[in-house]
Every structure is written in C-alpha cells, then in structure tokens.
Amino acid sequence: EVQLVESGGGLVQPGGSLRLSCAASGFNFGIYWMQWVRHIPGKGLVWVSRINIEGNSTNYADSVKGRFTISRDNTKNTLFLQMTSLGVEDTAVYYCARGRQVLHAWGQGTLVTVSS
Amino acid sequence: DIVMTQSPDFLAVSLGERATINCKSSQNILYSSNNKNYLGWYQQKPGQPLRLLIYWATTRESGVPDRFSASGSGTDFTLTISSLQAEDVAVYYCHQYYSLPYTFGQGTKLEIK
Q1: What residues 59-98 of chain A have any CB closer than 8 A to a CB of chain B?
Q2: Which residue from B minimizes the CA distance to A36?
Q3: What is the reported pLDDT for B26?
Q4: How sure is the predictor about B45, in pLDDT bands with cuts at 50, 70 and 90?
Q5: Taking a C-beta distance cutoff of 8 angstroms, is the pair A59, A49 a contact?
Q6: Interface contact A46-B104, CB threshold 8 A
Q7: What is the pLDDT of residue A41?
Q8: Is B50–A103 a contact, with Cβ atoms under 8 angstroms apart?
Q9: How many Å apart are CA A110 and CA A41, to the nearest integer?
Q10: Which letter does DSSP use for residue A85 in this model?
Q11: Which of A86, B42, B72, B108 is the most buried (most CB within 10 A)?
Q12: pLDDT, tens digit, for every residue of A16-56?
C-alpha cells in the first residue's frame, strides 16, 4: 500500500524555521518526482514546490522562493521541506504528494501554525 | 498564473441522482502537440488524504468507481457522478498541471440532499 506520512509541523513564531518530513512507503520512492502542496485556510490548495528524481532540479512558488528548500533522501525514502523566515501567511496544512505533474498519491498532511 | 474557477462552491444532491461540478481555467490547458488536457480532479473526504479521481481531463484513476466520469477540453471541464452514493460526500478539486505554478480550483463541497 502506498503511504506518505508527513511530520514536523507545529506552532512556530513569525520569523522562525521548521523542517517538514514526508516518509514514503509501499512504492519505489527513488523513481518518482515529489511535490509539496499546502492548504491555506480560506484560500484552498496552493502548490508549493517540486523536486525531480535525483534531487538536483527543483521548482518553487514565488511566495516561498528563497525561504523554502525542498530536498530528498532516496536512501531513506524521505522528502523534506525546510522552511525559514516563516510568516503568518505560511499557516497551513502541508501535504506531500507523489508525481511530476499529476498527483497520484497524497499524505494526510501536517499542520504548521505561525503565530506569536 | 492560471486561475482555476469551480462552480458551484456547494452542491446538494439526492442519493442516486447525478452530480455535476464545473471547472474553468483562465487559459487554455490543452497541449496541442499531444492533444492532452493537463487537468486532474481530486476528492477529499474528512480525515483522509486527497485522492486522485481523474487525470488528463478524462482518464479515470485505477480503482475509481465508473460512476465518476469527466469531460471537457481547452478551458472548460466537468466532473460527473452519475448516481450519487453516501460515500461520495466530500470536497472536490480540479487541478491544472499545464504550467508552473500548478494551481487548483477553490473546491466544491458535495453533500446529500
């Protein structure tokens, strides 16, 4: 069974940092592109970032470029999202998802709350 | 950015009846070189991960019941549930993957009338 399990969310103050992880199982993680999507309250689903199979090609939404870094460890079947300079506008449920374009599998999400 | 607009925002349909959700993109998402529409539909039930229902605008994902179908091309798309079941209560999203940043519709909440 394909499983994606996010972790690392929580409450952080504005200006703070957080590292999200997404543990993959049930499929060959190393042959799939991966993405992060967030669900912002009142705004809906918003695409965040994408990474290729090797981890050497990435894309970011303008709203997170320069602050977020996507990466992966294919030996540990894990996807990461390093988030810095967090603002209240980054409050959301963060989902990892499998796919280069179409998102064939999603995790349950991890909640990130940015508040003082 | 391509803006995806769904209608309606809320939909209440009786069990066994047809449910139709529309999605309109602000730009054409049909790639002429392969004649594919870069459009997907997802279902989200409370407490569950999002589930891919349809991709390439009309291709049903493996395991998705055949009461789910989709149509459309270019900028106008439709998701249809032919005979609504209780387990279809969910929020439905369309998604364009034609160009970055990929974008989603605002969601349509489907309930039982």
Answers
A1: 59, 61-62, 95, 97
A2: B102
A3: 98
A4: very high
A5: yes
A6: yes
A7: 87
A8: yes
A9: 14
A10: S
A11: B42
A12: 999 999 999 999 999 999 999 999 988 899 999 999 999 99
B17-33 pLDDT, tens digit per residue, is 999 999 999 999 999 99
Residues in Cβ contact with B34 at an 8 Å cutoff, skipping those fewer than 6 apart: none
- The CA distances from residue B37 to A116, B30, B59, in Å, are 44, 4, 10
A115 to chain B, minimum CA–CA distance in Å? 24
What is the DSSP secondary structure assignment for residue B102, as one 8-state letter? P
| Cβ-contact B4, B95 below 8 angstroms | yes
A11-41: burial string, b at 16+ Cβ within 10 Å, e else:
ebeeeeebebbbbbeebebeebbbbbbbbee
Strand partners, A60: A49
- Whole-number Å distance between alpha carbons of B6 and B20: 11
CB B71 within 8 A of CB B81: no
Number of DSSP helices (H) and strands (E) in chain B, helices first: 0, 13
| Among B35, B4, B17, B30, residue whose Cα is nearest residue B105 | B4
Q: How far is A75 from chain B (nearest CA, A)?
A: 25
Cβ of A102 within 8 Å of Cβ of B103? The answer is: no
Q: What span, in angstroms and rounded, lies between the C-alpha atoms of A40 and A91? A: 7
User: What was the pLDDT predicted at B47?
Assistant: 87
